[in-house]
Structure formats: structure tokens, C-alpha cells
Amino acid sequence: MAHPCALTIAGSDSGGGAGIQADLKTFMMQGCYGLSVITALTAQNTRAVTAIEAPTPGFVAEQLRAVHADFPIQAAKTGMLFSEAIITAVADGLADKNFPLVVDPVCVAQSGARLLLAEAVEALKARMFPLADLVTPNRHEAELLAGMPIASREDAAAVIRRLLALGARAVLLKGGHFAVGEAAAIGFVADRLVLADGREWEFVRPHVATRNTHGTGCTLSAAITAHLALGKTLPEAVEAARDYLQLALETAWDLGGGDGPVNHLAPYARLLGQA
Questions:
Q1: CA-to-CA distance for 185 and 106, rounded, in angstroms?
Q2: 23, CA 20 to 30 Å: which among 17, 31, 35, 183?
Q3: What is the mean pLDDT of the chain?
Q4: pTM of this prediction?
């Protein structure tokens, strides 16, 4: 298939930097046809999330049923799932999936707004992790889900083991939310991929000093999903996705008065000789 179908199940970001909007831009930049199931509407910009409206779980389930019934989905990802009832609807709809699933366990927006209700955390672990071919937490999400802080490399390994024990087939612990000062001082960011069978990879990229990091987690997980849809192995997909995110960070420009988005169009701009 020339342009495989990739599905995002996530919230809408009216500012366009994260969520469904970021995912669809990212899918297209990797050469995939993007499908979407919207789990929440957010009113947000680069400064804050000012309101959230969630559709009924039944409507979320019907969106998923509709796209699943008619499109040859090659890979999917989840982002903001918001509530226990929506998690249940999504998990039930994906129970018979025959494609890889990336679970980005979105809990809190960069602005600090809660995107996963506190009572939904256990449902996320119980229902989504066993379906996940990859879980992509940042530091804060990993600490919340594993129930322990990360203060050392050994702690990080223990957290990854706890997340794998929940049923995920692999965990990518992202390095971008570890101390920014530390990342800047050592000059690089490392993302750690560990499979359930114990195999492990580390993806190291130069630290990019920019405030324009809104949507980085969504963008990375969407790019991984797209490359899985294109037929790459998981380590290959993470490598390609990390390269895309790096370029998007390096070429991001200031947009809005807060933390701006990454440059999702970076490969296109480069093709046109604009970057």
C-alpha cells in the first residue's frame, strides 16, 4: 500500500500543536493516511488549557467502530483518553485489533492542566497497557504510573520493569522531561527503549535549547506509529521518529505567547529549500 492508514485516538488541541492535530500532521509528513477518533475537545493555546469537553463514551466507540470497519488500519496510537468510561470504550473497541498499538499515557498538559482524570489512572494501566505494543511515558507519567520516583538510572530501570509487568510489550522512557538543566549541561537527551524480552536500545540526540516543545510527546508517538504502519521494526520506527522530532525541534519558530509547537512541516520545508 502506497500510503498506509494510521489511526490516532486522542483529544483535539485547538492550538494545533498537540493531540489529534499534531498526530495527523505527523502522519502525513511520514507518508501515511491519517484517521482519527476524538476523545475530548480542548480549548487551548500555547499558554493554557482553558476548557475540556468530552463526548459520550458511546460516541467515541462509534467513531472507532466506523473507521475500523472501513479502513485497512496498519497501526494506531492513543493519546488523551480523559476518563475511565472512555478508556473502557476504546479498550473494548481495540480488543480484536490486528495492528500494532502505541499508547502515549497522556496525563497532564505542558501547561499543567490535567488531561486524565485521577480516577482513570488505574483503568489506563489495567485496560490499555495489555493492548500496547509500546508505551511512551515521559518521566512524570512513568513515575505516576509506576508509583515511584526516578532519581537514578537504576530507578529508571525499575520503573520500566514495573510498566512492562502491567502487560505492555515494550516501554520507551523519554528523556526530554528529565532536568532541563541537566540535559543542557551534558548536551544530549536519551530515550530508552526496553522490550519485554529484555532487549534494550538507547536513542541519543543533541539537546535543543528551545521553549517550543508543545506537543513533543504526541509528535514522537505519532511518528513511531506511522513508521510501524510503514512496516519498520519497533527500534527502526523509534529511530526514524526521533530523527523527525529532532528536526521539528531544531526548526521550530516562536508562535504564540507561551510554549510554542514544534515544526511539524520541517521535512516539507526542507524539501522546498526553506529549512
A1: 27
A2: 183
A3: 92
A4: 0.94
- Exposure string of 217-251, with b = 16+ CB inside 10 Å and e = fewer, is bbbbbbbbbbbbbbebebeebbbbbbebbbbbbeb
Beta-strand runs (E) in the chain: 5-13, 33-44, 49-53, 73-78, 101-103, 134-135, 170-173, 188-195, 200-206
- Domains of the chain and any CATH numbers: 5-265 (3.40.1190.20)
Q: In whole angstroms, what separates CA 6 from the centre of its chain?
A: 13
Measured between alpha carbons, how far is 197 from 57 in angstroms, rounded to an integer? 35
Q: What is the rounded CA–CA span in Å between residue 240 and residue 193?
A: 14
Q: What does residue 170 show for φ and ψ, rounded to 5 degrees? A: -160, 155
Name, in order, each residue with C-beta under 8 angstroms of 125's C-beta and a sequence gap of 6 or more.
145, 166
In whole angstroms, what is the distance from residue 219 CA to residue 25 CA? 9
Note the pLDDT of residue 269.
80
**Which pLDDT score is estimated for 61?**
98
* CB hemisphere CA count around 242 (13 angstroms): 25
Q: To the nearest whole percent, how much of the chain has pLDDT over 70?
A: 93
Q: What is the mean pLDDT of residues 233-253?
A: 97
